[in-house]
Design goal:
Elements (H helix, E strand, L loop, with lengths): L9 H28 L3 E3 L2 E5 L20 E3 L20 E3 L20 E3 L20 E3 L20 E3 L20 E3 L20 E3 L20 E3 L29 E3 L9 H4 L4 H8 L3
């Protein structure tokens, strides 16, 4: 007759399977990590990985093992959140989150001390974590096409920021921290709900491009005219009826501009009153001659 059979309870079977799974996990994770690592490449000396347009609704867990990554593209997926493990990629220089469904950024993003470029446009962000202010190496920050109403004061520490895009949000007042970003060269605030620009705008002495079209501005502060590095000023599609007398000081605005990318002054699409409206028909030079004190 056969030997005595061993009968294991379902609990014992489950325990064995669980232990087996635990033993296999490191190997599986390691294999998956190597698989995703093989998708990385080196572009211009940077370790780069693109997972754009993959239909991802969550990030693969093995991604956070790639600590050597410097550029990560997660754009045009279906991500609703990012895990705290994002902070493991502490060598990241560029992070592209464009075109997802993110409703927030994890506070751990503040640990990415080497980050220089962050694209988080076209998401569903309503606020920005205070911890982002710790990313003091940031040079380019795009938060366009979200639902943001303001920025935390901690972002005032971003003295290396040169380009800031806050267009197509729900901002009523330019966040106070923006006026502390003295390195800004490009500031895009189109299609918000701005009603005023504070006098502190004069602190942005390096600003070359300022775009505030499509807001509800009734006046421009005279301090705006002290930004003598401005090469493009777009105030189209607001409620401006006049301009500051000091506008002639903006000598680098060389012409009235029409095309959105043209340098110069974009202003004609406003309910300007006479005589400004009539003077502008002679071009920007005519306006400046009109405004200059005799």
């Amino acid at each position: 007759m056969g030997g005595k059979q061993s009968h294991l309870s379902s609990k014992e079977l489950n325990d064995q399977r669980r232990k087996s799974t635990i033993r296999d996990e490191p190997t599986s994770l390691s294999t998956a990590t190597e698989r995703i690592r093989r998708q990385t490449s080196v572009h211009f000396g940077y370790s780069t990985l693109s997972l754009a347009m993959r239909g991802l609704d969550e990030t693969p867990v093995e991604l956070w093992q790639l600590r050597e990554l410097q550029k990560l593209n997660l754009s045009m997926n279906c991500l609703c959140s990012l895990p705290p493990l994002l902070s493991a990629l502490d060598n990241l220089v560029v992070l592209n989150l464009w075109g997802n469904n993110l409703t927030s950024l994890p506070p751990e993003i503040g640990r990415l001390k080497k980050l220089r470029v962050l694209f988080a446009c076209r998401n569903r962000l309503s606020e920005v974590p205070e911890e982002l202010g710790s990313c003091t190496c940031l040079e380019v920050l795009s938060l366009a096409n979200n639902q943001i109403t303001g920025l935390p004061g901690s972002l005032a520490a971003m003295h290396n920021l040169t380009k800031l895009n806050l267009s197509h949000n729900r901002i009523v007042h330019i966040p106070t921290c923006v006026y502390s970003m003295k390195g800004l060269v490009f500031l895009h605030l189109a299609c918000n709900r701005l009603e005023t620009i504070a006098d502190q705008i004069q602190d942005l002495v390096n600003l070359k491009i300022l775009i505030v079209e499509g807001n509800s501005l009734h006046t421009l502060p005279k301090t705006l005219c002290f930004l003598q590095s401005l090469e493009l000023l777009n105030v189209d599609f607001n409620d401006l009826q006049s301009v500051p007398v000091e506008m002639y000081l903006l000598s680098r605005l060389r012409r009235l501009a029409c095309h959105p990318l043209d340098k110069g002054l974009h202003i004609v699409h406003n309910p300007l009153l006479k005589p400004i409206q009539e003077v502008l028909q002679g071009g920007l030079g005519a306006l400046y001659n009109y405004l200059k004190p005799s």
